[in-house]
Amino acid sequence: MKMMKMAALVAVAATMMFGTTPSFASAGREADKASVKRPALEQGAKCRQEALTAAGVSDAQKADLKAMHQKYRPQMQEIRKSTLSQEEKAAKVKELAKAMRAERAKILTPEQMEKMKQYIKENCPRGMGAEKKPKGRTTTK
Description:
Blueprint: H1 2-35, H2 39-54, H3 59-81, H4 86-107, H5 110-123
Helix pairs in contact: 2-5, 3-4
């Protein structure tokens, strides 16, 4: 009798441990994904905000820029999720980026755009307007 109780207890414990772990684990991973901080993105966003301030962009202009980004974000996500080839995706993204630049030029003055580019070039490690490093190895002799 004692042996049967022990076996039943082990079976219940094993079921609880192994039967429910995957569902808890997957739920935990989903929660972790949502709460994971992405320092590079946060740093880039912070630098762009500082660039807007340095360029003297008004609150109304900032609101217009935010609305513009919200308008284009779903289109950009759709392109990234699509089954198009990498070349086709790149072409679509380039086309969308061109439209965004044109719209941004209607919101900001040329002086503001230049100040932003200069601020980003001088103060932001990566991002819009940052100088790109050459690909591959470079050797100096």
